[in-house]
Amino acid sequence: MADRFEDRSLVKHKTDGYSGWVDGTTSIKAVFTGNMDTLFQYRVKLVNQGGVRVAPHEDLELVRPPQETPVGRRKKTAADFKKETDLFGMGYRVTNMDREGRWRVLRDIAIPKIGVAAVVHTILGNMGVRSTSENNAKRNENALFEWNKDLCWMIEKYPEEPFWKEQSVSWRINTIREKLRTFQIIKEYIPL
Which of 84, 139, 166, 189 is such that its CA lies 20 to 30 A from the CA of 2? Predict the structure, then answer.
């Protein structure tokens, strides 16, 4: 394989024609496109469209190398890849992404690829880890608030999913939400 593209390099997909900035790599095979026999593929933040695509090295061509290296940026290690969820690898994030962008990733990429149940379990896992104490919840208030909004959106968008009726799922959702109401992080939610 040729040299790796550096983060923030401007690249163009050779056949699909989209352009974007390299935003790291992912090793999650569920989101791979094209050549599946690689150890990783690039996450590409799309120019003028919002969202993220994933592509192997051979499907991309360099348009322009990065103009500057961000301060404090470090190379990813194997431990970093274990922290990455399938959802993150598909472009979903609460930081620097508005609700419409997140819902577009959920609706068009994540839910068709891994299903409502896997998406909800990932979001609940994130919420659970970040709400272990009131201090922790206050530090992560914005993310917890936005994840709750995303859960509400999925409950409204996919009400017929049998997944919502599973006792363990409804118990987990309600337990986390009640904790967040106690900590005054959320005031509203759509009941199951």
Answer: 84
* CA 184/CA 178 separation, integer angstroms: 10
| DSSP string computed for the chain | --PPPPTT-EEEETTT--EEEEEEEE--GGG--S--SSS-EEEEEETTT-SEEEE-GGGEEEEE--SSPPTT-----HHHHHH--HHHHTT--STT--HHHHHHHIIIIIHHHHHHHHHHHHHHHHHHHTTSSHHHHHHTHHHHHHHHHHHHHHHHHSTT-GGGG-HHHHHHHHHHHHHHHHTTS-S-----
Name residue 13's beta-bridge partners.
60
What region does 50 belong to: left with phi over 0, alpha with psi -120 to 50, or beta?
Answer: left
**What pLDDT, on the 0 to 100 scale, is given for residue 35?**
86
Buried b (16+ CB within 10 A) or exposed e, 88-123: bbbbbbbeebeeebbbbbbeebbbeebebebbbbbb
| pLDDT tens figures, 30-51 | 888 888 888 899 998 887 666 7
